[in-house]
């Protein structure tokens, strides 16, 4: 399937090249007959924006091409996408397996919310396919994985995980926000659903919060029906921004990945840096798999500094180019002392208990020139 759009796939009103923003809650009918024709599926008209909107549809079509999926569905945020997938696939006593190193709030939903509804949540410590073998026998409803994982960018053997899921009759759901579909397409490696926080690389400019799920038509249609009930839709203005972001996704992510690889290599040789987590480096435990699955290695670099976590604070304060801000995937570089940014409520010890090293700096590379970012990092590290 090509991810480039054919001319006949552009179906915009009044031959507009860009999708118009249908800023409307509802759609009108000419007559009762017209309404009846709509309900008997004789027309492709729209009804009410909670059930669908042409701007959203345009963005979903483009995303489905990018993911190599039959269909995609947008959500109000990445978390809305994740939680909706959980709600649709799980039930009391059903088992979900979710690795220890996942997006913090995904794990929080599993442990804090799903358990309240009687879902059995199992968390293997390692982000590897092998760790699944340690789980109790019996059917599992959902195998969830974040590939690459956050923040140490582990990349498990996806085919092995897909096989395990099939043997356990589980749906295999992969959140590949950190790679984006420009670099990695989970559906091509046996995943049933690919989840994205479109807030990150897809939106790409830190000006929209959005999420998406992609997969086979039947699952996406079921999610769409559920979404009409849960109400977690994306507004048409935001859908427009997602569609626009998708047009330059590949260019941005390739450029960002080129810069990130060079920065990671620069950091490796640097005194004061004790460890660099970047899948493009030979030293990363999953480098071979990253080469196999991904067309480039992405824009996140996590690194640890010699000594205590105060050095991480000093560095993020000293750097002049990247902004100190949560999130990643925008045009501006962003940096954070990860534990302080993402785990403030449970503190350094709480984060360490979840396997996140204190003092880990997460750097999201933007579109600035490599030399500028390198010199800034070099200066910052020298001052420590
Ligand atoms: C940001 C993020 C999410 C949540 O997305 P929001 O759009 O912020 O709700 C989920 N998964 C991963 C991997 C993320 O990075």
How would you briefly describe this protein structure?
The protein has about 375 residues and is of the alpha/beta class.
What does this structure look like?
- The chain is globular.
- It has twelve helices and twelve strands.
- 47% of the residues are buried.
- β4, α5 and β5 form a beta-alpha-beta unit.
- Strands 1-7-6-5-4-2-3 form a seven-stranded mixed β-sheet.
- The mean pLDDT is 95.
- Helix content is 37%, strand content 14%.
- It is α/β, with parallel strands linked by helices.
- It has two domains: 214 residues, Type I PLP-dependent aspartate aminotransferase-like (Major domain) (Aspartate Aminotransferase, domain 2, 3-Layer(aba) Sandwich), CATH 3.40.640; 133 residues, Aspartate Aminotransferase, domain 1, CATH 3.90.1150.
- Bound molecules: pyridoxal-5'-phosphate (PLP).
- The site of pyridoxal-5'-phosphate has 16 residues, from α3.
Low-pLDDT ranges: none
Rg (CA only) = 22 Å
In the CATH hierarchy, what is the class of the largest domain? Alpha Beta
* Number of extended strands: 12
Can you tell me the CATH superfamily of the largest domain? Type I PLP-dependent aspartate aminotransferase-like (Major domain)
Measured between the Cα atoms of the first and last residue, the distance is 50 Å
Shape: globular
- CATH architecture verdict of the largest domain: 3-Layer(aba) Sandwich
With strands numbered from the N-terminus, the spatial order across the biggest sheet is 1-7-6-5-4-2-3
Q: Which ions and ligands are bound to the chains?
A: pyridoxal-5'-phosphate
